[in-house]
Amino acid sequence: MTVVTDAPEVSGDDEDGARPPRSRWYSSLFVQLLVAIVAGIVVGWLWPGVGADLKPLADGFIKLIKMVIAPIVFCTVVLGIAHVGDMRSVGRIGVKALIYFEAVTTFALLFGLLVGNLVKPGSGFDIDAQTLATGADQLAKKTGDGELPHTVEFLLNIIPASVISAFAENQLLQVLFFAVLFGLALAKFRERVPTMIPQAIDQIGQIFFVIIGWIMRLAPLGAFGAMAYIIGQYGLSSLGSYGKLIACCYLAAVLFLLVLAAIVRVFAGVNPWKLLRYIKDELFLALGTASTEVVLPRIMTKLTDAGCSRACTGLVIPTGYSFNLDGATLYLSICVLFLAQALGVDLSVGEQITALLVLMLTSKGMAGVPGSSFLALSATISAIGHGSIPVAAVAVLLGADRIMDSMRVSVNLLGNCVATLVVANWEGQLDKSRMHRVLDGDVPAKSMPG
Fold it and tell me: Per-residue pLDDT for 434 more than 90?
């Protein structure tokens, strides 16, 4: 599938042997996003009222991206599976992805507990009793009185009520479920199915990638609005009030990223620094908008360009958005200890294991649920059953939660990129020769090989 990109990340020679003209520095999406994020911080800091009112810029950009995610995932997955043409291969990819997700997210939870016990971010934090008194109401407002789906309910919700509703409601896992079935059926009957059908899906996918190219021109505007809103609404004062917790979470994130770097180096043979440089635009966009969904189409394209099969990329990335939330799980485990320490409660090893087991379940149903981190923490506090830690204490984190988004989205995004590369290599669907040439900048990133 050929896609349109607004600015190729790597350079190479054209057909005549001449190098393509270098883009001007200010046309780089990375530079534009950097300027936009800094400008948003300044506006939110100096004019908080104006900054808080700029939220519609971010919301509009995110909605534009979400508008085309479902059809892009459908086209990519269908074509990838139809190309593989082997139901067992597709099943192996899914099983290996789930095994990887469970192993890494469980490690993230354990790692967060380790860091929380060593750093003790809640020690010395004075929780206002009045805050706890109104905590239940604040949580209800933040979460819309919702709740996380139970495990069985979550699994059943993967099956759409109808094909149309999956696309209409933008339910990514439901779209993925139908796309897998459609792709397998297309592969089974590929001898009898006219070639025009896969070609038509291919062309439709190209059209949506052109639309993504147009929308991405608004990325700096979306990042500017999001950052101005965050700083204007919550203020830089939050950095002081929750300084120890924020420092602990970001320290844990940096250390965990080193673990991911080791994983992708050992299990996929990928240079982590080159990978980071390759996806820097998407990483900055996710950081600026506090959303990984806005980069889903581009990150799928880039990983396929870098040698991962379309089937592997199409299956692992969308599934990882629900099952591989490394950054969120890391944050949640630290926050459980933060609340206990802030209230002067020393959680036993058994109680921490209980928290770990509960978070292993609740973290899988967080994607797309408003206030999901607070719901997951509330369920965990209730499961621990320690009377000295009221569920309403979770409201204490309302002032710091938004500041943590940058940590969560960066780890989540990099975690899913690493997962795709590892699973692709594990399944033998990673073109290492192409991967090295693309990451070295020897091949222009402009096509989606099968």
Answer: yes
pLDDT band, very low/low/confident/very high, at 49 (cuts 50, 70, 90): confident
List the alpha helices (DSSP H) in 296-371: 296-305, 310-323, 326-342, 349-362
Predicted local distance difference test score (pLDDT) of residue 413: 93
**Cβ(404)–Cβ(239) below 8 Å:** no
Say if residues 424 and 311 touch (Cβ distance below 8 Å): no
Residue 269 half-sphere exposure, CB side, CA atoms within 13 Å? 14
Q: Does 285 reside within a domain?
A: yes
d(CA 236, CA 234): 7
Structure confidence at residue 416 (pLDDT): 94
445 located within any domain: no
- Report whether 272 contacts 265 (CB < 8 A): yes
Q: Residue 105 is inside which H or E element, if any? A: helix 87-119
How many domains does the chain divide into? 1
The pTM score is 0.81
Structure tokens at 218: 């608004």
Digit-coded pLDDT (tens) for 193-202: 666 788 888 8
Domain that includes residue 31, residue range: 27-440
* 258-264 contact pairs (CB < 8 A, 24+): 259/107, 259/111, 260/326, 260/411, 260/414, 260/415, 260/418, 263/104, 263/418, 263/422, 264/418, 264/421, 264/422
Residue 253, Cβ density class (10 Å: 0-12 exposed, 13-18 middle, ≥19 buried): buried
Domain membership of residue 2 (yes or no) is no
The arithmetic mean of pLDDT across residues 348-369, rounded, is 79
pLDDT of residue 106: 93
10 Å Cβ neighbour count for 52? 17
Who's near 384: CB < 8 A, 6+ residues apart? 336, 347, 351, 354, 355, 358
CATH code: domain of residue 434:
1.10.3860.10
Give a yes or no: residue 450 inside a domain: no
